[in-house]
Amino acid sequence: MMRRFLLLSLCGLTLLGAGRWAVKNAAAAEDLKAEVMKAEDARNEVLPKGDVAALEKIYADDLVYTNARGETLTKTQHLAEIKNRKLSFVSFQHSDVSVHAFGNMGIVTGVSTSAVSNNGVVSSSPRKFMNIYAKQGGKWLCVGHSETPMVQ
Whole-model pTM? Predict the structure, then answer.
C-alpha cells in the first residue's frame, strides 16, 4: 500500500513538473513571438516611408529579398530600389498576419494588399508574404523576404 502511495505521489509530482514546464515554455514561446513581431512592426513602420537609413539597421547584411515579380535581390539592391524611388508605397496594408518563433529564428506570414509603385506602375494585387528574422548580436534582423501573388 505504501509503495502504491509513493508511486502515485511520484507520478503526480512528475505531471505537475511537466505541466509547469509546458506553461513556462508556452510563455517563453509567446515572448519570442512578441520580440519577432516587434521587429516586424518596426520594419512596417519605416518601409512605407522609404526610410533607407532605418531599413539598413533592420535588414541583415546577407538579406535575401524575393519580390512579387520573382526577382531575388540583395540588401544593397533592395535598398537602392527604395532610395532611387523605383519602389515606393502608395498605401500599406497587411492582414492575416501570424508569427512563428523557433529559438533564434522567427517567421512572419500574412497577406499584403499594399499599393506598390514599381517604376511608376502601381499594383495593389493581393500577395502572400513571408519575412524571416534571425537573432544576431542580440537583435532581431530580417534575413529573408518573399512575396507571391495570390490567385484572383
Answer: 0.80
User: How far is it between the farthest Cα atoms of the chain?
Assistant: 82
Number of domains in the chain: 1
**H or E stretch including 109?**
strand 105-112
Domain that residue 96 falls in: 2-149
Q: What does the block give as the cell for 113?
A: 494588399
- Lowest mean per-residue pLDDT among 6-10, 106-110, 114-118: 6-10
DSSP reduced 3-state for 65: strand
Long-range pairs, 71-80, Cβ under 8 A, ≥24: 79/52, 79/55
In angstroms, the CA 8 to CA 24 distance is 24
With contact defined as beta carbons under 8 Å apart, do 90 and 116 qualify?
A: yes
